[in-house]
Amino acid sequence: MSIGGKKALTFSFKMRPVRPERELVDMLRKLLIRDPEGLLEIGRDDSSARSLVGGIYVFNTDMVVQSTDLLPGMSLGQLARKCVISNYSDLAAKGAKPLLFLASIGLPKDLEDKDFISIMRGLQRGVSEYDSYLSGGDISEANEVIIAGFAAGRVLRRLVSRKDAQPGDLIFTTGSFGLTSLAYMHLLEGMDLPPGLRDLVLRAVYEPVAKVEQGICISEFASSSTDSSDGLYWSLKELSRASGYGYVVDNLPIDKRILSFVERAGLDPTEVVFHGGEEYELVFTVSPDKVSQLEEVFERRGWDLLKIGHVISEPGVFLKHNENFLEVREGGWEHFKSERK
Predict the structure, then answer these.
(1) Spatial distance between the Cα atoms of 270 and 263, rounded to a whole number of angstroms
(2) What top-level class would CATH report for the domain 46-155?
(3) pLDDT in tens, 197-207
């Protein structure tokens, strides 16, 4: 190639894959100036919070992309609703009640009207389930469907971060794990499932639920809290990174409805429990002196509450096995690193 009769210089670039999501988060923590009015730590908590007139408000953003988040058999309306759920689950982990939702939507030029209607109905269904509103947003052209959500909520009782657990605190979840792991194995790897079990696991990934009421209640008692959007391993790992302490699981929270199938199929229950994703259960820690009050409230409301372990001084995520602490291998969903084909 020549430019103006002169031979053009040629350059050879060695392309490097994008870093894993959590490495990018660590990088941005060094690049950005911390908000002096912020009540939560950027890159360590999954939301931001400000003390404003009338209370503390929590703000969160999360997005879904058609090529990475639309599972086989899932409608665009279900994908849009899941965008609401993922944002509201983060609010729940902070003890906040959702107030409003904004959505910036990228759409391909050839999108049919019925698909646009499905997306908007999915967003409306999601916000209505939590007595909140779709208050605005933006629409632009894109190569595929992209929905970037922004949620705002108000802390009703107490703001909870990820960082304040102490050794000796007990670890709880609002539900069991494993349904979404089996759903991914079925949808993405072709694993056969009995019809009843198939319906159960597909409902878990197509129609997840944000535990907002539980989150508000938990905020009275919890020393730290997060949600399990990326799987139980990463939930505990992020709590460990934020607090500097370790998380030991001594009661594996596997869903009893899938246990017999997991055993018959020769699957490792620890893999199924730790390395799923998008369960949207709350994972939190409580000081031992507050546990009885927490259990009493959950029993009165008829909510699930599972005690799964305790916090120790050594950082990391561990599984207790025959009095030994085995470090759990890294796994679960992480953008730019995980693959869902």
Answers:
(1) 11
(2) alpha beta
(3) 999 999 999 99
